[in-house]
Amino acid sequence: MSPSLLDLETQLAFYKAYHNNTGNVLIHSIFVPTILFTSMRILNDVKIWNGYTLTHLLALSFGLFYILLRVGTGILASLILALTCKFLNDGTIKMTQTTAWILFVISWIFQFIGHGVFEKRKPALLDNLVQSLVLAPYFILYELLFILGFMPELKKNLQARVDKELDRMRASK
User: Fold this and answer.
1) What's the pTM value of the predicted model, to 2 decimals?
2) Nearest partner of 75 among 86, 87, 90, 65, judged by Cα
3) Could you tell me where the beta strands, DSSP code E, fall in 17-160?
4) Is Transmembrane helix included in the keywords of this UniProt record (predicted)?
5) Mean model confidence pLDDT for the chain
6) Which of 1, 9, 14, 97 sits between 20 and 30 A of 132, alpha carbons compared?
């Protein structure tokens, strides 16, 4: 599957093909947000210009990409990223760098366990590092929205595409 950069369904189907097992999705649902948050905490100490940090740059970049994929959910994701920046900057969220790094490393370990134990497939990041890192938090937001009953047609379309891709992969083995 070669994802078109700004096609939401193609992007989500690419990522979902690597995250189709319930156990792996659950692990990712916990640890992808943890990785995003701890990354934002770690990068928040790196000042780049006039009080702005690498966290602001990350949030802006991710948010713009998400909005280009789909405006409504992109704005929701951007709001979550912006609030995280605000709470990191105003001291509402307090976490040491050491704690952030420990949680970051533990989260990555669990991600790989999820792929090895449940998915029995290499992680998406081994096929497309940047896409996987940027898309993972957005994918988890969509998984939450699907659980809440939003966008059932998109969920159905994604699963059909993933099933077809997984069948193709099994046939080629």
Assistant:
1) 0.89
2) 65
3) 47-49, 52-53
4) yes
5) 91
6) 97
